[in-house]
Amino acid sequence: MVSAHVQAADVLVFTDQWHPVEALDNVRVIHLDAAAEIEAELESGLPADPQQAAAIVRQRMDDGGNNFQARLATAYQGVVDAWSLGITKIPAIVVDERYVVYGDADVSRALASIEAYKRDQP
After folding, report:
1. Residue 39 domain-assigned?
2. Exposure class string for 24-47: b at 16+ Cβ within 10 A, else e
3. Model pTM score
4. In terms of CB atoms within 10 Å, which end of the chain has fewer, N or C?
5. Rounded to an integer, what distance in angstroms lies between the CA atom of residue 5 and that of residue 25?
6. Contact residues for 25 (Cβ-Cβ < 8 A; gap 6+)
C-alpha cells in the first residue's frame, strides 16, 4: 500500500492512448496525444478548398466555446509539463516533480517503488 503522505496533487501520470495505465481515481493522468486528437476532430471531413476548410474549422472552434478552448489549452499544457520535466518515455509516473518511474502501467505499483526508493535513501 502506498503511504498516505504521497498526495494525489504530487502525482502526475504521462501517457497516451496506446499506453493505458491503471491509475487511482485521484491521480491526474495526462494524455500526451490529446492535442492531436482534438486537432483531428477539427480536421474531420473538411473540404479540399482551403478557404472553406478554414471557415469550417473556425466555426467548429466557435461552436466549442470555452469548453473547447479549455480542452485544447489543457492538452497542450500537458505536453509542456512533460517537456519541462524531461519526460523521455511513456507511461511515466512522476512524484513531487522529482521522482519518475518509466514503463509501469500500474500507478499504485510505481508509487510503491518510489516510496521504497525514498525510504532507502539517506
Report:
1. yes
2. eeebebbbbbbbeebeeebeeeee
3. 0.82
4. C
5. 16
6. none
Q: How many domains does the chain have?
A: 1
Predicted confidence band at 6 (pLDDT cuts at 50, 70, 90)? Answer: low
- Is residue 52 packed enough to be buried (19+ CB in 10 Å), middle (13-18) or exposed (0-12)? exposed
Q: Provide mean pLDDT across the span 55-72.
A: 92
Q: Are 122 and 26 in contact (CB under 8 A)?
A: no
Question: pLDDT category, 1, cuts 50, 70, 90?
Answer: very low
Residue 66 lies in a domain: yes
- How far is Cα 69 from Cα 83, in angstroms, rounded to an integer? 21
Query: Contacts by 7-11 with C-beta closer than 8 Å and gap 24+?
Result: 10/95, 10/96, 11/93, 11/94, 11/95, 11/107, 11/111
* C-alpha distance across the termini of the chain, in Å: 22
